[in-house]
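Review form for a predicted model. The reviewer records the input and the model, then writes brief findings.
Reviewer: anonymous (R2)
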Amino acid sequence: MTLYKKLFEELPSQISCIEEALKTGQYKLAFDVTHKLNGSAKICCLQDIEESATALEKCLIQKRHGQTATYFLILQQRISIFINHRQLILDYLVNKQ
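Model under review:
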């Protein structure tokens, strides 16, 4: 449960950081933050977020910078959906223990 709480705390700042890095052409920073976010998604078994982060990572690695906005938007939407269900998820984890 602590892992999910930490994830809920970090995701908004990570997605903001990625967005700003992409806007300013700091693609290495965008990749680094996306990679960290992707690792967290994998650990927490958040497949939708993981798939979106992986797609954005690949786009950045292949230097397809013109396509990053689309992949970022998908990642941002999936994180938003996850965050909107924060209380439901945390309540479920508490009751599961």
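Findings: The chain has a mean pLDDT of 95.
Further findings: Residues 2-23 form the longest helix (22 residues).
Recommendation: see findings above.
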